[in-house]
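[job 4471] stage=fold_predict status=RUNNING
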Amino acid sequence: MRDFNATRKAGTETGEAPPDAIFTGPLAYMHNLVSTAQLKILLERKADLVLVNVLDRPEFAQEHIPGSINIPVAEIERIAPQLIKSSDLIVVYCRTSRCRASAVAADKLSTIGYDNVMRYSAGIRGWKAADLPVEGLYTDTRRAA
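[job 4471] inference complete, writing structure tokens
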């Protein structure tokens, strides 16, 4: 998956968006962050939430937080309305706290009318660093490098 921070820097430095950029502007919305402990509690309580991994499908297949669905950030505006009700609590996540895809996805969801959007900014690596389980082809729960 492409580094969204690098894309943004490239667009900002030249004043133009790179031709393959998915997102180039500033984020319009600020989203509440959910911690690893908070997300774990929400999942244990089987809270009414939709947990969305916004990475590409191959990355999702490799590993993801149990119970999450996959909607790649590039497709979120098209696919989310088919799978998620506007009243749902949505928690989006990506790879790490340095990955910008979850922030972009949260912003896109808010733009198309979703009001209950939160970000799990620690991502899959933060989840694994807390020794929590993952699903997928690669299910080693040791700390991610």
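[job 4471] summary: Residues 54 and 72 are 4 Å apart (CA to CA).
[job 4471] exit 0
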